[in-house]
Each structure stands twice: as structure tokens, then as C-alpha cells.
Amino acid sequence: MNHVVTHPLDPEDAAPMNAFRAMxxxxxxxxxxxxxxxxxxxxxxxxxxxDDVTFEADTVGGIPGLWVRPAQFxxxxxxxxxxxxxxxxxxxNAYRHLVAHVAARSSAQAFIPDYRLAPEHxxxxxxxxxxxxxxxxxxxxxxxxxxAGDSAGGNLALVLASSVTADDFRANAILVGVVVQSPLTDxxxxxxxxxxxxxxxxxxxxxxxxxxxxxxxxxxxxxxxLASPLYARFSGLPAIRVHVGDDEVLLDDSRRYVERAxxxxxxxxxxxxMGMPHGFVGSVGQLKASARALDAIGAFLASAFRGGS
Length: 309
Hints:
This protein is α/β, with parallel strands linked by helices.
């Protein structure tokens, strides 16, 4: 099985991507600290909304968050969606439009937890909170759970997957699959694409990543399996799908994770989207690649839920 699928840049996406790059590159590497929270949320608020979903604030497993529900869903299934933001930024509310696209395409309800953020709440607060959310879902009648997330949320999703598939973990729910976008899998920042894709990435630099990661870890070992899923246990994991842009310093974080998962016998696949930067799926309605990636994510989740029936 080929574990890597490469999607060429659609000619219709080239012009808008060039214009976008010219606009954002002057800001490359400058997003930092808690001062970036409001601008980050403002960017996520601009994701095209849907009119076929509903939102409901709730607390699951003691963690506040937001339910995103499409018109049709099964009450005993749920996606646990973990938002991005370098462990220091992001809210469930700001992510509601992006998650709405995932929920609608998979015909499954999704819960977005507002896990605690660094630097006020460093590692392992976020991992504790997403685990509590998973346990909480299993206690309210959810029998099949899929985990999804992007960037730092992708890190938390993969860490959580390793935790809940451990032999000594007990819950009433079955983990049916995991799908992540551009996950941070190695907080030691050893991936070569921090250098080889430095010019291609319009957003992030290694120094910027180091600042956020340092604030999150607060002295913890970056290779701790709860911090970096690249060093976590792979045995017992369900099917995993990873989507990443080719123009990302985080490209190798995805490549290396999928390589190790596949070597461990896991059904793992990496989709690389040429010409795309970090977070490109949020440009749904503007880029053809965004809709195609979201369609693939939705199809995988729908299939994972059927397979878990």
C-alpha cells in the first residue's frame, strides 16, 4: 500500500494562492504570545459558515465546549475535534465554522472542547482535558468516537489516540478513527522541513515554533509520549489519515509520523497538498484544494463510523 498520496496544485488555485502569499509573508513568524489570541480567533471566524448546522454550548467530562450538529446524525456517534493554536491560542467558538464543514460532510455531531491553554496552563493540562472530554463522551451514551484536529490540535488528537487505545484504558466508547491536519508530532523540533521548507512556508518559522513550544512544555521533555506523538505507542491505533500542505515547515512532522505508524502495521495514510500552506482547509469556498481535502476528511470519518457499527 502506498502510504503517501500527492495532490497536484489545481491551476485555479495558483492565482489566489500567489495573492494570499504576497499579503501574509510580511507577517511571517510574528504571531506570538497570548496577544495573538484575538487575531487568531478573528482569522477562524472568517471561515465560510454553513446554514445546515446548529451549535450548542455544553460541558462534557467537566470541560466546557461547543457541540456542532448537522441536520442528520446518529446520537451514539461523535467526533471529538481538537482545535489548533500552538497550545496557546484558539477557542471552540472561533472554530465552529471549520468544524461545521467536517460535521456536515461526515453526517456526525462534533464536540469541540475548550481545553486549557498555555502559558497559564502548561503541559499536561491540555492532554488531561482532552482525555477528560473523551471519557465524558463515553459516559453520555456515545458509543463510537472519531478524533480529529489540526496543528496543535492534531498533536493532541494523536496523543489522545495512543492513550485511549492502551491495554489498561477502560471506556464504553470505541475509537473508530483519527484524522488530523498538519499535526505537530515532534516538539523537539527536529524535522528537517523547518529548514528545507522555511522559504515556502508563508506563516511560521522555527524560532516562532520554539517560543510556543517552550511556553507549552514549561520544562517538560519534548520527547515525552504525551507531548510528542511521534514518540508515543503505535500499537492498537485505528485507521489514521493525515493531511498536510507541501509548503509547510511542519511537513516532515506529518511524514515521519505516518512512516512510523505504517511501519508499525497501522492503516495510516498521508495526503500532501502541493502549493498549500498551513491551515489551507480554512479557505473553503476560495480554494478547490480546501473543499477537496474537507471532502476526503468527511468521507473518511463517515466510513470509519460505518466500520465501527
